[in-house]
Amino acid sequence: MNLLRTHDQATLQDTLIACKESLIHLRDATEFITRKDISSRLDTLAGRRQIFVDRLTTALRQLGDLPADTDPDKETVEKALNRLHAAATTEQPQADFLRQRMLSEEKLLHTVNQHLQTGLNELSHQLLTMLSDELRHSLATLKSMHQDLANSEPAGHAH
Question: How far apart are CA 58 and CA 127, in angstroms?
Answer without folding.
Answer: 11
